[in-house]
Amino acid sequence: MDKAESPRPLSDAAPAFMAETIAARYSYGFTWLGRPVIQYPQDIVAIQELIWTVRPDLIIETGIAHGGSLILSASLLALLDLCDAGTAGTTIDPRHSQRKVIGIDVEIRPRNRAAIESHPLAPRIEMIEGSSIDAAVIAAVHERATTASTVMVFLDSNHTHDHVLAELAAYAPLVTPGSYCVVFDTIVEHMPKSMFPDRPWGPGNNPKTAVHEFLSSHPEFTIDSTIPDKLLITVAPDGYLKRTAMGRDDE
Ligand SMILES: C[S@@+](CC[C@H](N)C(=O)[O-])C[C@H]1O[C@@H](n2cnc3c(N)ncnc32)[C@H](O)[C@@H]1O
To answer: What is the pLDDT of residues 91-102, one digit of tens each?
Structure first.
């Protein structure tokens, strides 16, 4: 490849951009259809590509915060239903659709709950308040997933190794072959410990370390590196996990 065409300067520039923007809380500056979404725009576009390609009828998300990622998922599921109905350009009543997103958060603040519940996309959203690794919460989500045919999972709650590993054990089995489990904030592994002074996670104890431990015993998942490789700017290096086969427990 001609040096002038090489993407190398871009990939070399990305780590510094990530470090500066994480320190500046860049990901807190955006909204999706009116709700704050704590994601990088690049990851939002990647999520859109995945949802359009995989066409899930159920998305499971841990970590609701202000609800922006729930609204993002709900909006893309609504568009899938609109396109499937062959009525693009006309209004579809969301209560008549099938595709849904379930969000789980240990604390859904009243103001956030009210804003999500009054959003036009609320009929596509179910919320569960509780820890994502609580047995009753996991059981409720599994029960809900029994009627879904294509399931996608986004993990974005507590970012410690043990918590994310427990979330992967709980929810990755629900991901259908060909679909994805996206583990956010694997980028923590690449940042200095001093960047997270008030957090229990940091280098060596974060979603990326959990992903690698999980993958060591789950060959049915592989890292789809094509996504971070093209994004360059992403909080999820090694975090886009594609399920390529059934797991041992499903066969
Ligand atoms: C980074 S925010 C989620 C951002 C959201 N996904 C978005 O893109 O806008 C993390 C959320 O995880 C929640 N959380 C922390 N520990 C949790 C746990 N054990 N179970 C479920 N949610 C948890 C926090 O309350 C917080 O709202």
So the answer is: 555 544 689 999
29 residue type, one letter:
G
Instruction: Please give the distance, rounded to the nearest whole angstrom, from the Cα atom of residue 226 to the centre of ligand 1.
Output: 26
pLDDT at 86: 73
36 CA from centroid of ligand 1 (Å): 13
Residue 174: burial class (beta carbons within 10 Å; 0-12, 13-18, 19+): buried
Q: Which of 64, 66, 111, 129 to mutate to test the pocket of ligand 1 (most atoms within 8 A of CB)?
A: 64
